[in-house]
Design brief:
About 50% of the residues are buried. The chain folds into two domains: about 220 residues, Aldolase class I (TIM Barrel, Alpha-Beta Barrel), CATH 3.20.20.70; about 80 residues, no CATH class. It is about 45% helix and about 15% strand. The longest helix is centred in the last third of the chain and has 23 residues. Helix 2 packs parallel to helix 3 and helix 11 runs antiparallel to helix 12. The strands form two sheets. An eight-stranded parallel beta sheet has the order 1-9-8-6-5-4-3-2. The protein has a three-stranded antiparallel beta sheet with strand order 7-11-10, with helices on one face. The two termini are about 25 Å apart. The protein is α/β, with parallel strands linked by helices and about 325 residues long. The protein binds flavin mononucleotide. The site of flavin mononucleotide has 30 residues, from strand 3, strand 9 and helix 9. InterPro entries: Aldolase_TIM, Enoyl_ACP_red-II_put, NMO.
């Protein structure tokens, strides 16, 4: 299976499954487990200072001999320094969020690092492919974390049609059916975040995982729209306070202050009422915590049955 898959060939991985970079919880523990299971694990650099990222990369190298990557948020105050760390450490793959990694492309290409930006629109996908992206991740608004506005169902085929590099589908994928659907829309790989939050290897606080386990289809809301960086989180005290302040015309500064440190508060301190419990809409379907290897094997193992059932419905 997947011998001819463009992403597996490009990145030298067994299964076309990425674990999305996740600030604070996409650590070496999770990334190495995903890479060891045959997918592509990604360390989420978030706003990590460069020395912390270097230590995380070195841990990951110690725990897996398979390819892994780093997700770099281009709005990080340390972006230049973390790019240098990735180059020094010769990390084989980087994915990027929140912007255009064009200025770093020549240095990354020179050492053979594959650059795969996350995009939420056709225009950005085209621009980044022109700048040299090796593939793009088309991420729909169903996703957990910072999001765009278009659904995976509508965005993915439009990005596939617009670019001539492989496309990875992300947002709302949590099982074999989701993977088959993304492939039907033209993706050559999938990226999941929410499903991997509910893995044994994810270091998120148990309160965080418990709340995600309880989530239903309509449990998430989007905050931060007025600030220009919307994020999908589980509705809680924090999201309600946010909405109240937004409605009362709070300034950007006041809203930023409310959000500052809120993901860490939930992921590490376990305060899931006053912290940001970032998770995707698919969380309503996720009801177990499994080892990463089992998550990946269940999804890949279930694909033939899903494909058969699609064929059956088309007869
Ligand atoms: C807790 C959490 C944190 C995230 N942090 C980041 C991040 O730092 N950088 C990024 O590009 N995407 C981030 N994402 C998005 C994921 O990488 C992934 O694309 C997304 O979760 C896919 O959608 P899904 O949640 O429906 O699987 C985050 C997602 C979650 C759930």
């Amino acid at each position: 299976m997947f011998e001819n898959n463009a992403i597996c060939k490009l990145l030298n991985i067994k299964y076309p499954i990425f674990q999305g970079g996740m600030a604070w919880i996409g650590t070496a523990e999770l990334a190495s487990a995903v890479s060891n299971a045959g997918g592509l694990g990604l360390i989420g650099a978030g706003h990590m200072p460069p020395d912390v990222l270097r230590a995380e990369i070195q841990k990951c190298k110690g725990w897996t001999d398979k390819p892994f990557g780093v997700n770099i948020m281009l709005m990080s105050p340390f972006v230049k320094e973390v790019m240098q760390v990735v180059i020094d450490e010769r990390v084989p793959v980087i994915t990027t969020g929140a912007g255009n990694p064009g200025e770093y492309m020549p240095a990354l290409k020179e050492i053979g690092t594959k650059v795969i930006p996350v995009v939420a629109s056709v225009a950005l996908a085209k621009r980044l492919v022109r700048a040299g992206a090796d593939a793009v991740i088309a991420e729909g608004t169903e996703s957990g974390g910072h999001i765009g506005e278009i659904t995976t169902m509508a965005l993915l085929p439009q990005v596939v049609d617009a670019v001539d590099v492989p496309v990875i589908g992300a947002g709302g994928i949590g099982d074999s059916r989701g993977m088959a659907a993304a492939f039907a829309l033209g993706a050559q790989a999938i990226q999941m975040g929410s499903r991997f939050v509910l893995s044994e290897e994810c270091i998120a606080h148990e309160n965080y995982k418990k709340l995600v386990l309880k989530a239903k289809d309509r449990s998430t809301v989007v905050t931060g729209k007025s600030l220009g960086h919307p994020a999908r989180i589980i509705a809680n005290k924090l999201s309600r306070k946010y909405e109240e302040m937004e409605a009362a015309g709070a300034s950007a500064e006041e809203l930023e202050k409310l959000g500052a440190g809120s993901l860490h508060r939930a992921t590490h301190e376990g305060d899931v009422e006053n912290g940001s419990v970032m998770i995707g809409e698919i969380s309503g379907m996720l009801n177990d915590i499994k080892p990463v290897k089992q998550i990946i094997e269940d999804i890949v193992g279930g694909l033939p049955t899903v494909i058969e059932s699609i064929q059956g419905n088309c007869k």
